[in-house]
Amino acid sequence: MMRSAVLGAVLLAAATSYYIYLPLPSAVAEPWKLMLLDAVFRAMMHVCNLAQDLGLAHNTRVLNYMVTLVEVRGPQSSESVRVTDTSFEGVQARVFESTLPGPRRLKRGVVYFHGGGWALGSGRMRSYDLLCRRMAEDLDAVIISVDYRLAPEVHFPEPYNDALRACRHILTAEVLALFSVDPERVAVSGDSAGGNLAAAVAQQLALDNSVSTKFKVQALIYPVLQALDFNTPSYQQNGNVPILYRPLMARFWLEYLNGDLKLVPSLLANNHTAVNQGQEAVVAAKAKMNWTNLLAPAFQKHYKPVAPCLGTPGLLEQLPGLLDVRAAPLLAEREVLKLVPPAYIMTCEHDVLRDDGLMYARRLEEAGVAVTSDHYAEGFHGCMVFGFWPARFTVGMQSMRNYIHWLQQNL
Ligand SMILES: *[C@@H]1O[C@H](CO)[C@@H](O)[C@H](O)[C@H]1NC(C)=O
Ligand SMILES: *[C@@H]1O[C@H](CO)[C@@H](O)[C@H](O)[C@H]1NC(C)=O
């Protein structure tokens, strides 16, 4: 009896550690914590896939339901931050207003877009709630965390349109006055897919002469900026690093652009950009994100470009969003980039999206825009917002401090 209990325990431990254990690059921060976090994500994914296989629901919906159940909080004000849920032109948002005592004056404002592959998460989740509270306090600011609609309910360009509509409305004199926000000190910011929306909206509003209040700065945290090359050095290097695996990012793109998820392998092979498809547009777009020119050799390492000659015909016609700057802000013309606000771009070494951010930083600099690049050699995708135990990473907390510090200095 005793013996079989011991045997059972050993087997269980072995199975668990097999499930949790994952070879990680030695330089990644706090690898055991990351493995644990990853195991939780994978377990949730398995449950979701099972639910989908049983015909119960779309797996992204199940995942979002679980995340929401565990993570979403009500709007709880504290002594120093008033929190309210509201909407701007029909787009849901949570507003965090600093209520620090002192002379009544205009405050800084930040419009924030949460990450989650345009499919997961909410500005009402604990991790984003904590981030925005802290920003409101430390910056004595009003933070507006926008809940754009998500895939699979809606697809591109709807989430982008939600983001743009909310920003236009927030930037009106009436709304700024309502929240006592200084029109000269409003930032747009976001992480991951939210960084994509922030960059895309910053470009569009810079071009739009009908909007008189402009963003002062943009702050992009490990942003997603392109879907033409799934073989940048960072995609090649970090394809198996949690939590944003390479096929998962391709899948998020396909869900966003309303494509068939069976196309993941074609995208990963860069088959959508084969030159035989001939369109000038592809050649021009690829030239704008030529990493052999845009990345420092230390980031290129030994990796080679992947440019198939034949590819899969018709992919770009099926997925026109791949070439649309509103989905892929890295593809914007230099004339547009010249107009966007000064940028803070945070990147992590152990992240498939590292080079999206690095290339954008370089293109903005070439267009004459002031850029602060903040790179974390130990960082991995998502590290900044996992602010709760056991997923609180030293590198993540450090990056959050630096991000807020940059806003203190520049907003
Ligand atoms: C990228 O730049 C290199 C060096 O300037 C050039 O040889 C190559 O053809 C370019 N590739 C693309 C896709 O534009
Ligand atoms: C990509 O295109 C090549 C032809 O260039 C083809 O042989 C290969 O099967 C395609 N891969 C996928 C995953 O579609």
Automatic annotation (TrEMBL):
Q: How does it sit in the membrane?
A: Single-pass type II membrane protein
Q: Which GO terms describe its cellular component?
A: plasma membrane
EC number of this enzyme: 3.1.1.71
Q: In the record, what terms sit under GO molecular function?
A: acetylalkylglycerol acetylhydrolase activity
Q: Does the keyword Endoplasmic reticulum apply?
A: yes
Q: Which InterPro entries match?
A: AB_hydrolase_3 (IPR013094), AB_hydrolase_fold (IPR029058), Arylacetamide_deacetylase (IPR017157), GDXG_lipolytic_enzyme (IPR050300), Lipase_GDXG_put_SER_AS (IPR033140)
Domain Alpha/beta hydrolase fold-3, chain residue ranges per copy: 110-262, 324-384
Q: Name one Pfam family in it.
A: Abhydrolase_3
Biological-process GO terms, alphabetical:
lipid catabolic process
Residue runs in coiled coils: none
Alphabetical keyword list: Cell membrane, Endoplasmic reticulum, Glycoprotein, Hydrolase, Lipid degradation, Lipid metabolism, Membrane, Microsome, Signal-anchor, Transmembrane, Transmembrane helix
What is catalysed by this protein? a cholesterol ester + H2O = cholesterol + a fatty acid + H(+); a 1-O-alkyl-2-acetyl-sn-glycerol + H2O = a 1-O-alkyl-sn-glycerol + acetate + H(+); 1-O-hexadecyl-2-acetyl-sn-glycerol + H2O = 1-O-hexadecyl-sn-glycerol + acetate + H(+); cholesteryl (9Z-octadecenoate) + H2O = cholesterol + (9Z)-octadecenoate + H(+)
Localization annotation: Cell membrane; Microsome
Q: Which residues cross the membrane?
A: none
Location of the active site: 192, 351, 381
Main enzyme class: hydrolase
The family classification in the record reads:
Belongs to the 'GDXG' lipolytic enzyme family.
Please identify the protein, giving its name as recorded: Neutral cholesterol ester hydrolase 1
